[in-house]
Write a structure and sequence with these properties.
Structural class: alpha/beta
Order of helices and strands: HHEHEHEHEHEEEEEHHHEEEHHEH
Strand content: 5-15%
Number of helices: 12
Shape: globular
CATH topology of the largest domain: Aspartate Aminotransferase, domain 2
Helix content: 25-40%
Number of domains: 2
CATH class of the largest domain: Alpha Beta
Amino acid sequence: MINVFKPAMGDEEIQAIAEVIRSGWIGLGPKTAEFEREFAAFVEVPHAVALNSCTAALDLALKLLGIKNGDEVIVPTMTFVSTAHAVAYNLAHPIFADVDIHTRNIDLKDVERKITARTKAIVAVHYAGRPVELDALKELAGDIPIIEDAAHACGSFFKGRPIGSRGNIACFSFHAVKNLAMGDGGALTTTNKKWSERAKRLRWLGIDKGTWDRTAVDQSYWWEYYVDEIGLKCHLNDIAAAIGLVQLKKLEKMNERRRMIKNLYNQGLKELERVTLPADDDEDHQSSWHIYSICCDLRDKLSVFLQDRGISTGVHYKPIHLYKCYGSRTHLPTAERLFERILTLPMYPTLPDEDVYCIIDCIKDFYKKF
């Protein structure tokens, strides 16, 4: 099978894991702190807080903004469910916005329609790695804070700056098949020192000092710590951080390979009238190309056709407002129309050119039959 996603790891990651295990410190410790410094520098912000998932980062971001029971948070409907779930965790109401038919990012006109006095935050998801129109969204939002859901956008750039460097808070994913993969993991980045310090407490049950921090304190009662508020246990560990440090060094090269694969797809599929290609990079938008998602006629039949030929595909995503847990009440026509036609093709740095050509040829063969 040609996988739809696949992690790109090698001997360097194996060696990094071995070194951490031999060190005797595999939990929240020095490697996590090192990764936080390196990742913050990569995003061009002063602070990064390493966590066990992007979902945890979203949850903490909302807590840092003081989101509470009864508040409204606008989120795009075409994203992974955790974007909305994090709002629900904080007892707030996710207000689903439609998406742009071309970029599949949040529809700014629909955001404008849905802002009320109860709107306390807007979550901007960079779908597939394609940057949201952040300047326009900021102008529209005014004083309403923006949380960037950058789960797909590690290594994306908007107007020459890394995604995560322009907003109030950004949340990243290091899941097993993300551009920077750790197996699982995430990070919250911010320019706000107080938010960073509080997030580090909240990720460790509200405790003011991690175990590693306490070992460095040369004083009586080094074991004592304070807990002023209740937090969760959602920090990263040094095994994952060690993998992340290696992956971070490779990220630019891996993302460049993704762009090469994107170009092969674009060239090979551009003449098919029944296939619409994803929005391409331009001067202001450089995607990380975490996902390569086409819009196509006969999507379900094409998916089965490819599966029968050893090619895995996916659908990203079913609009969240259609799930039973959110009531299935809102009508968002663009997202609902896209959901019937979108198909994610294989995309990962180690995908060989010949496999890409095979996928293109199979898609062409399908449309010759139908």
